[in-house]
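Objective 1.3, modelling of assemblies. Example input:
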Amino acid sequence: QSVLTQPPSVSAAPGQRVTISCSGTTSNIGRGFISWFQQFPGAAPTLLIYDTDKRPSGIPDRFSGSRSGTSATLRISGLQTGDEADYFCASWDTSLTSGVFGGGTKVTV
Amino acid sequence: DVDLVQSGPEVKKPGESVTISCETSGYSFSRHWIGWVRQMPGKGLEWLGMIYPYDFDIRYNPSFQGQFIISADKSSSTAYLQWSSLRPSDTAIYFCARHVYCYNGVCQTADFWGPGTLVTVSP
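Predicted structure (tokens):
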């Protein structure tokens, strides 16, 4: 059971937009420090979003992040077949004094 | 360029010991926290802990405390994850990852990851 809650899967047609939710508590998501990672099968995760809404260099602006209260959201617009992957949210939990992840969401295009 | 190179796959029996490594390059190893993340077969990511090589400060996920040891060697810019007595439930891929935007032992994120080391524990 993951500390952060994500839907197991989402799907949309090419060119459309998907949103992935990540629900937490005031000890983690509610305090910020939200990251999103993309993971293709057999590969390591790569950083997509950090500090809730910031993109590392090289990440296209089709990927965006936001937070409202104890929930975070990743949006992928202009969906491409190459976006098919697992997406994980992450944060720091001040009560657990530990990094925490969501269970992951599989995006199907 | 930042690079994290992990040791190869391990196949062990229950009760055996193993140490996996993560050799880094391209940045100041001592001045960045480096952590470990577990991914059990077909499952999600779990944060295990991290070490600050500068002063060897270590933070463990309380859920895993005592199950393994995290260490680092500044001379070789390498981090380690060590078990003294493996269990079948330790079967997983283990990723090392550089942690950044850290303050007082709290890190915002992990920006570079190693490719992972598969540890298989089977009788």
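Chain A touches chain B at residues 2, 33, 35, 37, 43-47, 50-51, 56, 88, 90, 92, 94, 96-104 (CB under 8 Å).
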